[in-house]
Amino acid sequence: MDDPLESMLRSLANRSASVPATPRLAATPRVQGGPCLDGAPNLDSLGIALPTGGSPATKGPALSGLPAGASGPKPGTALSGSGLAGGEVRLKEIRSPLERPNRPLLETDGQKKTGPLLVVQNLHKVYQKGPVEIPVLRGANLSVQAGEFVAIVGQSGSGKSTLLHLIGTLDTPTAGQIVFEGQRIDNLPAAERDRFRNKTIGIIFQFYHLLPELDTLENVLMPMMISAPCWRYWRRRNSYREAAIKLLEQMGLGNRLHHRPAELSGGELQRAAIARALVAQPKLLLADEPTGNLDRQTGQDILQLLRWLNQQHRLTILMVTHDPEIAAQAGRTVRLVDGCIHPA
Asked: Where does residue 190 rank: exposed (0-12), middle (13-18), buried (19+ CB within 10 A)?
């Protein structure tokens, strides 16, 4: 007689042999990151049917107006020409901001006509301090042509910085209007005002306002990090970095890329601030007492840099200062007195 335990084991072995083996599923590739990182899920594993034929890069629904098998434009890319040739998509080249032409044109009756870059019309600004109203601007008027270097002089407290902040859309006027390239900007919604400021206007201040925890290159890249969606910045990060490095080299800071603000001199801090203001390729640079926190020689170096930007690259500059000698180095000077602008 067979042993009962041996018989049970033999029966279980025969039963296992008669059951077909369950096939093992292939492991699904892990998706890397989110919208800012490269990598995509395996669409087959998600149950999404793809058309047969073609390479994985060209699979997917056809886009209207594109040749068969051509892939559509990826987010954040610019198309060259009126259409796509053979499905080719080219990223827009990110050039140095100093190479951008600064020649704004207004459309009038179907014809292009050169007009003022900036027009300030009857601008008023009144601050409320408790029950007391403090008028600062009382009907200021100013017109700036593209490529000009204009200095605004006035005593401390005359409203020079207030005027600059209004033009830079950092504040809103009590009355009057500000027109840039034919479009009114003082009454824009907050979000549109922020976009306009980030893309069109560069601002440099007396006290630099660099972030102390970032190095020079990171401070200059900050406007691009803020303005671009995460996925666009990630895709173009190398181009943005190259443009920022080139700009810093033109500012004489090629050997200070990875120094933090505490490791820079006053002149280097201001040149880094100028590079940060220029990295988004602005059409107008606003300078609020750019030499007020510097010694005389360093201040002259900064003014020489601003003149070079204006003369060689036609960058439009509007600078406020209380020093007539500094203002004299601009192309044109106006005076702010009693809240109004007068010829100097």
From this structure: exposed
